[in-house]
Amino acid sequence: MLPLFEQLRERLRTQPGRALNLPGLALRESAVLVPLFERGGEPWALFTRRPATLRAHAGQISFPGGARDPSDPTPLHAALREADEELGIPPGAVEVLGMLDEAPTVTQFRIQPFVGVIPGDLQYRPNPAEIDVVIEVPLAELLRPEVPRTETWRRGGEAHLVYFFDYGPHTIWGATARILVDLFERARGLPAFEALRAAAPRHAPPK
Fold this sequence. Notes:
Elements: H1 3-14, E1 28-39, E2 42-49, E3 61-62, E4 65-67, H2 75-87, E5 95-99, E6 103-104, E7 109-117, E8 133-138, H3 139-142, E9 148-155, E10 158-167, E11 170-173, H4 174-187, H5 191-198
Parallel strand pairs: 1-7
Antiparallel strand pairs: 1-2, 1-4, 2-3, 2-8, 5-7, 6-7, 9-10, 10-11
């Protein structure tokens, strides 16, 4: 396992994700897996794009996951089940490193993100009803200083900061981008993460 993954596991063990505290607001439980893997000695992340035909989140880039079913004993079970159903990632192939902060969505969900390491040579089996495109991204590309950007959007009379990450033709934004920001904030200061960030390329990725 890469040193970054080992260090991140220890960081998430000592600083686990926090639950949402929104009194009076009932949100439906959901969970996602933030799949990381090693390729060529470097850390990568896995994202998916939802089909444009879906009623909710059509065309958006996300991590594998979804609503917690009554049959799911825990949110982690939900994240692993969804990753299996969407991409054919066997739960036994995921080495869970820990969890990030729970995040709310405008669609009235609360997302519990779990960071996990999957095999770098895993053969995905995307479910066409849920997944349009599988996107693999080197973490170093997302750490380029010019990649993250923000916009201030107004919703319900309040200003909200919205994060965006561009990679080639793809734009990661919304709850997925917030989870990615939380992942990077948790990793800040780890020797392997700081080395990766310092070495992040300054050129644009291929289109």
